[in-house]
Amino acid sequence: MIHPYLSFSGNCREALEFYEKAFETEPPRILTFGDSPAAKDLPLTETDKRRVMHGEMVIAGSRVMASDVPNGMNFTVGNSISLAITGGDERKLRKWFTALQREGHVDMEPIQTPWSRFYGIVTDKFGVRWQLTHENEQR
């Protein structure tokens, strides 16, 4: 499946709460950088700890995901939407990741996260940013 992924510069929680009210949806699921199991190994300020590492909600039947851009990564207003591919076949996701990075660039090497055992970000040669995510069994 392909899902829109929204990026924000520190106001992701505010945006998700706004969309919750605007679209009359269930509250968004939010994981902050401070709540992440990796937080103890990261040099996070108190402000960084409150930023959204991963959030998601359902709007009109579609899953919409979002996060605040971490310090050190570029945020450009207008380029704040990417496409997230989710699936249960990790081998296929890895193959797609490799194909998309040809003549493009890797924004984040694939890693294991609290929500996925495979998660990576790549921008293809056309400038489209893709986030590939393995769906954990508990979903």
Mean pLDDT: 87
Largest sheet: 8 strands, mixed
Number of strands: 8
Q: What string gives the helices and strands in order?
A: EHEHEEEHEEE
Strand order of the largest sheet: 2-3-4-1-5-8-7-6
User: Spans of 5+ residues with little confidence (pLDDT < 50)?
Assistant: none
Strand content: 35-45%
Q: Nearest-angstrom radius of gyration? A: 15 Å
Output the number of helix runs.
3
Q: How would you describe the shape?
A: globular
Structural class: alpha+beta
Please bin the fraction of helical residues.
10-25%
Walk me through what this model shows.
The chain is α+β, with helices and mostly antiparallel strands. It has three helices and eight strands; from the N terminus they run βαβαβββαβββ. The chain has an eight-stranded mixed sheet, with helices on one face. The longest helix is centred in the first third of the chain and has 12 residues, at 12-23. The chain is globular. The mean pLDDT is 87. Pfam families: 3-dmu-9_3-mt. This is VOC family protein.
